[in-house]
């Protein structure tokens, strides 16, 4: 059994399918768990939709990264700069999805690759 804060539990942070968790609502001044109500949960199918930038870049092939970097299209360059300036990749963030669609329209990605790139993250990719 793992112990998580209520905020981490709501966000699904550091949880994986099959974990048994105890949700801690508050901690006292000595950082000991002060549980107002103890509930045990069996975590099922926690979709990881926020991944690290590095994890997302590792999903791209070398040829895709080179094509994006070498593109003379200023929109492609702005999309790449925005990605690199982000703290993480939210795979459900509509402007991000729209950016991938733009890359597809420019012939830098295929629709099939976009589906693969937007697949749920794994625990090692999680923010």
Protein model, in words:
By secondary structure, the protein is α+β, with helices and mostly antiparallel strands. It folds into two domains: 41 residues, no CATH class; 68 residues, no CATH class. Helix content is 42%, strand content 16%. The strands form three sheets. Strands 1-2-5 form a three-stranded mixed β-sheet. A two-stranded antiparallel sheet has the order 3-4. The longest helix is centred in the middle third of the chain and has 12 residues.
| Average pLDDT level | 84
What sequence of helices (H) and strands (E) makes up the elements? Answer: EHEEEEEHHHEHH
Query: What is the subunit organization of this protein?
Result: single chain
Widest β-sheet, arrangement of strands: 1-2-5
Unreliable residue stretches: none
Protein name: ASCH domain-containing protein
Organism: Thalassotalea castellviae
SSE order and pairing:
Blueprint: E1 2-5, H1 6-11, E2 20-24, E3 26-27, E4 33-34, E5 40-42, E6 50-51, H2 53-59, H3 62-70, H4 74-85, E7 89-90, H5 94-105, H6 111-117
Parallel strand pairs: 1-2
Antiparallel strand pairs: 2-5, 3-4, 6-7
List descriptors:
single chain; 127 residues; alpha+beta; three-stranded mixed beta sheet; two-stranded antiparallel ribbon; 6 helices; elongated
Give a short synopsis of this structure.
With 127 residues, the protein is α+β, with helices and mostly antiparallel strands.
């Amino acid at each position: 059994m793992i112990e998580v804060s209520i905020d981490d539990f709501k966000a699904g942070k550091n949880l994986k399918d099959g974990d048994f968790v105890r949700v801690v609502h508050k901690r006292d001044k000595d950082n000991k768990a002060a549980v107002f109500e103890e509930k045990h949960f069996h975590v099922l199918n926690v979709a990881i939709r926020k991944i690290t930038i590095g994890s997302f870049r590792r999903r791209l092939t070398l040829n895709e990264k080179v094509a994006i970097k070498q593109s003379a299209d200023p929109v492609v360059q702005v999309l790449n700069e925005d990605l690199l300036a982000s703290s993480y990749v939210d795979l459900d963030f509509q402007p991000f999805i729209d950016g991938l669609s733009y890359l597809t329209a420019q012939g830098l990605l295929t629709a099939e690759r976009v589906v693969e790139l937007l697949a749920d993250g794994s625990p090692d990719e999680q923010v």
